[in-house]
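Backbone-to-sequence.
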């Protein structure tokens, strides 16, 4: 499938009182990688909006394997898993230097017609055609 990587350095403002990255910041890390993946596909949030669809996240899962610490450089990889009936993306966060797996995750988004707020049971051709060109 199609993947994209981003490199992020954990900042002081990312940390919790235990001096590790606060769990809520992982959603932001996933978002940065997801946008890189959607850019690669050519269907990021501006194109979604232009095509008349909203793409809410309806499910998000995170498996914390090892903590991320201050100034640690991490690689976040987003990989498209499904695109025909929903947009399902898998994430893997690894230590940039060692490659050690730190976190795994997944998000699921569904297409909603912006005008009527109607849920779509299939992804719109604007997305599926772009993905198929890259496969």
């Amino acid at each position: 499938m199609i993947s994209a990587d981003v490199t992020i350095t954990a900042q002081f403002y990312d940390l919790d009182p235990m001096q590790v990255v606060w769990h809520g910041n992982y959603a932001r890390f996933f978002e940065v990688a997801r946008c890189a993946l959607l850019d690669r596909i050519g269907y990021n949030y501006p194109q979604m909006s232009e095509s008349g669809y909203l793409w809410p996240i309806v499910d998000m899962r995170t498996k914390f394997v090892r903590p991320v610490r201050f100034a640690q450089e991490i690689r976040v990889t987003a990989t498209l898993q499904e695109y025909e009936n929903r947009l399902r993306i898998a994430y893997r966060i690894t230590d940039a230097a060692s490659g050690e797996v730190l976190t795994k995750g997944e998000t699921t988004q569904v297409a909603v017609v912006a005008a009527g707020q109607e849920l779509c049971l299939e992804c719109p051709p604007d997305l599926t055609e772009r993905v198929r060109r890259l496969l």
